[in-house]
Amino acid sequence: MKKALAVGRKEFRQIVRDRRSLSILLLAPVIFLLLYGYALNFDIKHVTLAVEDRDQTAESRAIIAAFVNSGYFDLVAAVRSDEALVRLMDRNQIRAALIIPEKVGRAVDTGRNASVQVIINGDNANTASAVLGYATTIVLSVSATLQMEQRGVRMQPPVSLEPRIWYNPELRSALFLVPGLIAFIGMITAAVSTALSVVREKERGTWEQVRMAPISTVAYIVGKTIPYLALSIVSAMAIVLAAMALFGLPMRGSWLELLLAISLFLAGALGTGLFISTVAESQLVAFQIVLIVAFLPTFLLSGFIFPIRSMPVPIQLVTYIVPAKYFLVALRGIVLKGVGISVFWPALGALVIYAVGVLGLASVRLARARG
Amino acid sequence: MDAIVVKDLTRRFGQFVAVDHVSFTVGQGEIFGFLGSNGAGKSTTIRMLCGLLKPTAGTATVGGIDVGRDPEGVKQRIGYMSQRFSLYELLTVEQNIRFYAGLYGLSATRFGERKRFVLEMAGLVGREKTLARDLPGGWRQRLALGCAILHEPPILFLDEPTGGVDPLSRRHFWRLIDRLSEAGVTILVTTHYLDEAEYCHRLALIHAGRLAALGTTRELKEVFANRPIIELQTPDAVGVMRALDAAPEVEKTSLFGTSVHAVLRSRSVDPSALVSSLRGRGLTIDAVTAVAPSLDDVFLDAVEKAGRQ
């Protein structure tokens, strides 16, 4: 144990003096948070819209007004021909167009069915489907109102929808993304810095020197990882605080449980880095492996950005070994919902299993490498 | 009692036999040199003796402990220093010493004592706060040695300890090794600088995993006792070598700088008669001298013999 402490103290001194690893641990997370926090924005507001109103009746104006008043669309142009619409769309000046054909007003008045057309730029599927949703809702509500008016009754539609969105009422994507960012940043910094620190010792030859000394593999690993664990926990908590200040992240649950979840997750991330260091012989290779086994799965398969339920089943199965997936469940539970450990304990259990498994695997490989 | 006893030590990597039935003993306080080209099996042998690698066959005891059975026990009793002077670049001199002391579990009082000893030995008093990466080669080497003997191991392994160090520092280093040996520390050192082999009490030559020769420098040179070596100065080294190789009384020739060395088959061969027969064939010989065998000669001879077997 004393020896582990000696290793830990040495490691800590090295980190503090090595600007590169210190900046990976402390500075990179903040930059990541700012970069991704502001850049990854899926909020859809101010969709630029052009209108081609061939009808020019009270009804057609009511439809246009409904679009403009919804708050989602900015009317930027009123055109008289399809060609003009195509030109605007091509030049990216509009993302959506509304075409109201002749005789819509007449059709409504006489109780016949009429159609309006919405054209949406589909180059971003996410945005397009959201815009389609808005447009559908607006047209449905307008047509219900028009129907009432046509029958001469001034009343509300018989059934109306009153949606309430919980935990993130304004549907700000920041609130949805920040927990994912914490997982992502934590995984990267912890795994990268641990893997590099061991591989650097291999490159320098100090690794062999230490193997010649009477110190157990476990004591060495404990000593080597504890400074990184401590620093990355501090760094992860700092991200949470920064996200509260910058992005209005609510912190509804218990700080203690947050600390527990973060510690478990980071232990697994450190173990991943340690395991990688047993495979890689140079810092470059170590970095590339981290990219493949830690960076991409955490980004793509954790539910950080892409919902796991909409993935094909084989890929859904793969997500079960991505620790960030469980961490996100716990983190969103604590931060956004404010639920207690009784709700997300299975996720914590999965994190414990991952951490124990990967640390065990790394120890076995390191012990075997000792001969 | 001998400090290191190696018997038929063998290590295979798959089909490749890196170390093949090597046997030798090293007495307490002896400086034992381990010579051989890269890939000859030096490092594999050292790694087995240090408990890092399990022998495939044979036994080795280091400080009375069987390396195959108790590798951790061996690690307590040995010091190890490699050619890479494994220091932590970003730690100061003192922090490096402190780390290795911690690794070997030195108590606080013993640490203070040993730190002073190492700083004095390495000539680093007053430079405790210097980062290891800012030290010149010779000092790094001596600090690495100091870190390897902090725990006062009775047996010390040095793997190519003088690589990349200036000649003055090398001489200084060997004086330190000599002092350790006088204090009773057993030292096994690998090197491929043959001039350094002269510092060793006994030498082992290893070639292709096998022990090719073993003994003191004088003993090793004995192989030339009945085979005198002559050195010929000539402007036409190639022609002279060809003529000598054809002569029945010459065993072999080799090029040494601009001169030719020839090993004669026996003491009864008359060098002057040989020279006059060469001159008779129109070859120019400026001078001829009898030379004492060098370790280079011994080494080449042993390697050739091993190759013939």
How would you sum up this structure, described in words?
The complex is a heterodimer of chains A (371) and B (309). Chain A has 371 residues and is mostly helical. Helices cover 68% and strands 6% of the residues of chain A. Chain A folds into 2 domains: 2-41 and 172-369, no CATH class; 47-150, abc type-2 transporter like domain (abc type-2 transporter like fold, 3-Layer(aba) Sandwich). Chain A is built from 14 helices and 4 strands. The longest helix of chain A is centred in the middle third of the chain and has 32 residues, at 173-204. The radius of gyration of chain A is 28 Å and the shape is elongated. Chain B has 2 domains: 2-215, 3-Layer(aba) Sandwich (Rossmann fold), CATH 3.40.50; 223-308, Alpha-Beta Plaits. Helices cover 35% and strands 28% of the residues of chain B. Chain B has helices spanning 42-49, 71-77, 93-103, 108-122, 137-148, 167-182, 217-221, 237-246, 271-280, 295-308, and strands at 2-13, 16-27, 31-35, 57-62, 65-66, 78-82, 155-159, 186-191, 202-207, 210-215, 229-233, 250-256, 259-264, 287-291. Chain B has a 6-stranded mixed β-sheet, with helices on both faces. Chain A binds chain B through residues 2-3, 5-7, 9-10, 13-14, 17-18, 204-206, 208-215, 370-371, and chain B through 47, 50-54, 71-72, 75-76, 78, 80, 82, 84-91, 95, 98-105, 131.
Indicate the percent of residues in helices of chain A: 55-70%
Order the strands across the largest sheet of chain B as they lie in space. Answer: 6-7-8-3-9-10
* Major sheet details of chain B: 6 strands, mixed
Q: Quick one: overall form of chain B? A: elongated
N-to-C series of helices and strands of chain B:
EEEHEEHEHHHEHEEEHEHEEHEH
Distance between the termini of chain A: 22 Å
User: What fold name goes in the CATH topology slot of the largest domain in chain B?
Assistant: Rossmann fold
Low-confidence stretches of chain A: none
Please work out how many helical segments of chain A DSSP would assign.
14
Average pLDDT reading of chain A: 85
Structural class of chain B: alpha/beta
What's the mean pLDDT score of chain B? Answer: 90
**Proportion of residues in helical segments of chain B:** 25-40%
What's the number of helices of chain B?
10
Q: What is the name of the CATH superfamily of the largest domain in chain B?
A: P-loop containing nucleotide triphosphate hydrolases
Biggest interface goes to: A-B, 24 and 31 residues
Q: What string gives the helices and strands of chain A in order?
A: HHEHEHEHEHHHHHHHHH
Q: Main sheet of chain A, how many strands, which sense, barrel?
A: 4 strands, mixed
